[in-house]
């Protein structure tokens, strides 16, 4: 008996067969197509598909007739240890930005429909705004979410939007306005706008790009302007420093979009 057959787990094998098959078909497959491709019984494929959908490894189309991979496996693959490596590399850069711009900043990554804050550095002064490490923020109403959506291939963006579940307090955005916002980010290479969560805050968000020019993370600074006698860096100065910080962490060093 070969080692590959010594410790068989038929149910696990069926699940992995389905995942591997769907990985080769980005547009998804119907249940009948999956049954035919794998040569298994309809009932066992049905049960396995239902579990994979329930565990969010597979998403079902709105009509319920097609199944495709979700981004959960992608998120898991980029959580540990790649995420740890990214955070380790990003923290010194973020700390330098915080000291130079006198503002806080945080690092976000896409995770199951929204943005997960994986690193955070407070500003050096007594005043500032910080996002809690481990917090989940909205995909559709934050600079972080918009930048992550904008800097993706069309297919991946559609999957991210399909997985999205509104967080508490999320401000909805019409589809046409979202499309215009994402196009603007792709043109500028960053996002800057007044926060939809807090008064007096201007969010600046810049993508950290992978070798293909897609955003693997986003660096965001919630800029707060001091109105006392302290003359800190301006919004424009902070934005340029954040762009430089994100560019230094990007793997696609040849791109102009940072």
TrEMBL record:
**Which superkingdom heads the taxonomic lineage of this protein's source?**
Bacteria
Does the entry feature the keyword Cell inner membrane, yes or no? no
Entry's Gene3D superfamilies? 3.30.450.40, Winged helix-like DNA-binding domain superfamily/Winged helix DNA-binding domain (1.10.10.10)
Q: Which InterPro entries match?
A: GAF-like_dom_sf, HTH_MetabolicPath_Reg, Tscrpt_reg_IclR_C, Tscrpt_reg_IclR_N, WH-like_DNA-bd_sf, WH_DNA-bd_sf
List the keywords (alphabetical). DNA-binding, Transcription, Transcription regulation
Q: Which SMART domains match?
A: HTH_ICLR
Q: What region holds the IclR-ED domain?
A: 72-255
What the entry lists under PROSITE patterns is as follows: HTH_ICLR, ICLR_ED
Chain ranges of the HTH iclR-type domain: 9-71
Does the keyword field hold Transcription regulation? yes
What is this protein identified as?
Transcriptional regulator KdgR
Q: Which gene encodes it?
A: kdgR_2
